[in-house]
């Protein structure tokens, strides 16, 4: 259960205890041990504090390891820095110290590491946020998660102090922290009084739909009974079962009501008038009311079930795409290697024709398709760990054009303007994939030879890159829809093109991940111009 995720809309009980929403909060206490320890580390250093502890105790050993690492860092020897930092990590995974000492000591050391050295971004991401697997097999959690998960162990002033320093260090090291700040600011969640075990699903007066889950357990979501009833009323209107003035209301007690006992009332002036005029219509009205109530109950159950199935479908779809794509990589690599071998042995002979080269080309196309699908899946699930660095645009685009041009029959002519010396802060692998998709589209959606690519760049705070091709163009009404997932356009005058329809969608996601934007600036039958805007570094 990731404490960085919002939990106000879900309910989880395990073994009779409420797990979500989290109800823990910092203690109200006059002592401030975390601030005192941090100040002592700043004033005296870990070696001096270790001398004041009982020799051989885990905390004294931890302080000594911290001091050895700082000495190695100041001496500047990389092997010693790596060795002493590994020893500190090993000690953390081997000994569980009181959480206040553990969190404060780790945060102080990371602050010193950032101030006096050049820590790896991925290492700071793990120690501040994601956590990592220790060498002894136990897991070392990031300080953001530890502070939120164990906040009841901290005094409120200490919690605020550590929260501010963690956020500041995350900002300096380019580690995400906005969700950490939001969860820390949110405070404890709602405490739900639930009598366990449950016999059947319930709709509670406080807005929770709760269902049994295992022994002494339950799970639920926050729902609006009136909102669900309104959806039922709209659907019944569309089917002609209700008039505009007809209404539905659901009965609910002040506490919890089993779903099987919920009653939905129909308020229909039309039926009331008919019942008054025709006494014999009473039975029909009762029958309609019963049917409407049963239908409303069924629709409420179906709405909840449909939501659960939708969540499961999204998860299964993502898992299926990832599994299939990974399984395709190995056979595609084998096919390409065998095709290259075949081309070397029989290429150019009358009987072989161009079949080996066509096999290689198709294998490359399928490889790009698999790469796009895998990238889309990782970006959609937020699992891509970016490695930010200064990337020279001219060399990147030149390499992409050479690699992509080798995979197409038509030659590619690159005309750069203003790229020399331009660098952007970003993930080199993602930027390569971004320009590779744009160049590949330019080669596929054109009837001209050679394929002409004009790339211009300018810097005025932000970096703006314009990439123009001489393809068939994109209709004005499709300038935004081409960036949707699995969207492909059929161009007249060109043969049908394979692909997943994810290329431009991935390009826009990559630009968003870098804090930039991607749009179509102009398009006509003479070609299309894409404008990419990168934020200032």
TrEMBL record:
Organism: Stigmatella aurantiaca (strain DW4/3-1)
Protein keywords: Kinase, Phosphoprotein, Transferase, Two-component regulatory system
Domain Histidine kinase positions: 323-537
InterPro entries, A to Z: HATPase_C_sf (IPR036890), HATPase_dom (IPR003594), His_kinase_dom (IPR005467), HisK_dim/P_dom (IPR003661), HisK_dim/P_sf (IPR036097), Sensor_HK_Regulatory (IPR050736), Sig_transdc_His_kin-like_C (IPR004358)
GO molecular function: phosphorelay sensor kinase activity
Catalytic activity: ATP + protein L-histidine = ADP + protein N-phospho-L-histidine
Superkingdom assignment: Bacteria
Protein's name in the database: histidine kinase
